[in-house]
Design brief:
Layout: E1 2-9, H1 13-22, E2 30-36, E3 41-47, E4 61-63, E5 68-76, H2 79-88, H3 98-109, E6 119-127, E7 132-137, E8 146-150, E9 153-157, H4 160-163, H5 175-184, E10 197-199, E11 204-209, E12 212-218, H6 231-249, E13 256-259, H7 264-276, E14 283-287, H8 290-295, H9 302-312, E15 316-320, H10 326-336, H11 344-357, E16 362-364, H12 369-373, H13 377-384, H14 393-403, H15 410-418, H16 426-432, H17 439-446, H18 454-460, H19 468-494, E17 499-501, H20 507-514, H21 518-521, H22 529-535, H23 541-544, H24 555-560, H25 564-571, H26 578-581, H27 584-595, H28 602-618
Parallel strand pairs: 13-14, 13-16, 14-15, 16-17
Antiparallel strand pairs: 1-3, 1-9, 2-3, 4-5, 5-6, 6-7, 7-11, 8-9, 8-10, 11-12
Helix pairs in contact: 2-3, 5-17, 5-28, 6-7, 6-20, 6-22, 10-28, 11-19, 16-19, 25-28, 27-28
């Protein structure tokens, strides 16, 4: 697991060095580069050694006889199977790394090798014989990859901050993207706050051949087909796929640990890992102030994590959440490259820092279970629509208007959110479940009326009779997971030189989940029903059927405490950069309405704060650009 950066075009060598230095935290174990002025190609690599710790795993890695050079950030989970196949094709390997398997896979199969790679990756390959630079991102977007096209050529990197070293980078801020961050707290699709910088979409590949830039194209696409397997077949295949996924993601030449929140997903990963691994598996849990958790409607994970650790006999290491500091928010935004308004990354960073200090370089995460098999509140709310979606629009509008006047209690907030899009057409209503604030309000704050959600466009490309729950799950996998959860998990863990692996979105599990009928995923009020039935053999029932929680934080308390001066002095102060990009009056109205309890605008205000902090870090071009 590493960091990559590079370019094709009329860029100088010092740019490559600067890009590499800016992502040094991603690879504390080594650095390498390839630069060919005549070919106009530069590739840089920062190494976090996980498999094959010696020099035979160093990058860039080249097959000189074929003129192919690779930089690769990721882990290939089926590398042993592919290696055996390549050896039968006549390939002789120098070392035992999965990187060499990726390199020789390209030599043998060309671009088609991408469909064979099962793992998490962002990679770039220079093929001198074809005069082609290829960059690609893994099937589900577990690893990030940004790119930009300027008059001099194309540049790319694992993190946006590396691209900011280009002196000719167009730093125009995309107001439509800002509206997306305000609406969702993250940006679905390829948009970033810079109009000129894009995220390479999951499962996509992009090429520059002899100077001609081809638009990104998919090598993998999610299927909209609904599963039809029987209960017995679904249970058997799901369990087999999870065992395979956890088994192959435990492979490492360094110590491996795991997140353990005490929820079903992380507990399932730890339970299976404990059965499959003889070596100790330290588990990490975050804990925070119980009184603040109660006020925010959060449930402390620590007691559940302790229950699971005792049941499985694993070493649980509690980490007490550090007191929130204003400077932590700025550091979080810088680490993430994007103004994502979610405090969960702070906890991921704390766990990763402690794990690294204790010698653990790999952590298994339970991320993705809700996205594959249901489990979020919006999945249950969508199923409950059958009780009212048949009503005429006027009645649904009345339902919406009535619930929006509910108070600011935890229950009131959740009911308001559930019915916020009640009078919208089906696809728009499904997308609205992903909104943290009324799109009309975020449009007013962003002073933009041109926003069109990529999620809505995606839904309209699906077969007409795709069930609503299937549509929502596809949005989870295609947007929410890579653009939100996986992005912050990668950035905050790699900030401390720790690799996070996500067995629940291993391609084996994704394929198994796709065959499961929706009725076995969400059964009435019970999300992940089939997963819970499967795990009854491994975990206590009170853990399996505990209420759904997440990486929560007392954001509303923060806004009335340590963040209050930041809102007043930084966000609303005379020097605020958001004044240039957001509507000051609409933002002030939002803050006032939240203070008076007319709306719950806490996370939208946090989003505006993150945008301000992002602008301060990234908008201005620093000295010494290349």
């Amino acid at each position: 697991m590493c960091g990559i950066a590079g370019f094709w075009g009329a860029f100088p060598r010092p740019l490559l060095d600067a890009m590499s230095a800016s992502i040094a935290h991603r690879g504390p174990d080594g650095a390498g580069s390839f630069y060919n002025a005549e070919a106009k190609v530069g590739l840089a690599h920062r190494r976090l050694a996980i498999i094959e710790l010696g020099d035979t795993g160093a990058q860039p890695m080249a097959e000189t006889s074929r003129g192919v050079t690779l930089i690769y950030n990721g882990e290939l989970y089926n590398f042993r199977d592919l290696r055996r196949e390549l050896e039968k094709c006549g390939h002789a390997f120098r070392g035992a790394s999965d990187t060499e398997v990726v390199l020789r896979s390209y030599v043998e199969w060309g671009d088609a090798c991408l469909k064979r790679l099962e793992g998490i990756f962002a990679l770039a390959i220079w093929d001198a014989s074809r005069k082609q630079l290829l960059i690609a991102r893994d099937h589900l977007g577990v690893k990030p990859l940004y790119y930009t096209e300027t008059a001099r050529g194309v540049a790319f990197a694992s993190e946006l901050k590396a691209i900011c070293h280009l002196k000719d980078l167009d730093r125009a801020v995309d107001r439509v993207a800002l509206q997306s961050y305000l609406t969702h707290l993250w940006s679905p699709g390829e948009q970033t706050p810079f109009r000129a910088v894009k995220k390479l979409l999951p499962g996509h590949v992009m090429t520059v051949t002899d100077g001609e830039v081809a638009p990104p194209r998919p090598f993998f696409q999610l299927s909209a087909d609904v599963g039809t397997a029987s209960l017995e077949e679904s249970l058997e295949r799901l369990e087999a796929s999870l065992v395979t996924a956890v088994s192959r993601q435990l492979v490492a030449d360094v110590p491996v640990g795991a997140f353990l929140s005490g929820g079903l997903d992380s507990s399932a990963v730890v339970a299976l890992a404990k059965q499959l691994r003889e070596a100790p598996l330290p588990a990490y849990c975050i804990d925070y102030d119980a009184s603040e958790a109660c006020r925010e409607g959060l449930v402390r994970d620590a007691p559940y994590a302790a229950r699971v650790a005792e049941h499985l006999d694993v070493d649980l290491r509690h980490i007490v959440a550090e007191p929130f500091r204003v400077e932590d928010l700025a550091a979080m935004v810088e680490a993430m490259d994007e103004p994502q308004a979610d405090p969960a990354p702070l906890y991921v960073g704390q766990i990763a820092r402690v794990a690294r200090a204790q010698g653990v370089r790999v952590l298994l995460s339970g991320a993705g279970g809700d996205d594959l098999l249901t489990g979020y509140r919006r999945h249950r709310a969508l199923q409950l629509e059958r009780m009212w979606r048949w009503a005429p629009k006027c009645a649904r509008s009345a339902l919406r208007n009535g619930t929006q006047r509910l108070g600011a209690s935890v229950v009131g907030r959740r009911v308001r959110k559930a019915f916020a899009g009640a009078d919208l057409p089906e696809d728009e209503r499904i997308v609205n479940y992903f909104c943290w604030t009324d799109p009309a309000r975020s449009a007013a704050v962003a002073a933009s009326d041109s926003y069109r959600s990529p999620m809505l466009e995606f839904l309209r490309s699906l077969p007409p009779k795709t069930p609503p729950l299937q549509k929502m799950l596809l949005l989870e996998l295609r947007f929410f997971l890579p653009d939100h959860n996986l992005n912050y998990t990668d950035k905050l863990s790699m900030q401390h030189g720790v690799e996070v692996r996500v067995p629940l979105v291993d391609l084996e599990v994704v394929r198994a989940a796709a065959a499961i009928p929706l009725s076995l995923k969400q059964r009435g009020r019970e999300g992940k029903w089939i997963f819970k039935k499967m795990m009854e053999r491994y975990l206590p029932r009170d853990v399996i059927y505990r209420p759904k929680t997440g990486f929560g934080a007392p954001v509303r308390s923060w806004l009335r405490g340590p963040l209050a001066p930041l809102v007043q002095d930084v966000l609303m102060g005379a020097g605020a950069r958001v004044r240039t990009h957001l509507d000051e009056d609409a933002l002030r109205d939002l803050i006032n309405d939240d203070r008076e309890g007319r709306i719950d605008g806490a996370y939208t205000i946090l989003s505006a704060l993150c945008i301000e902090l992002w602008l301060r870090r990234f908008e201005s071009a620093p000295a010494g650009l290349h």
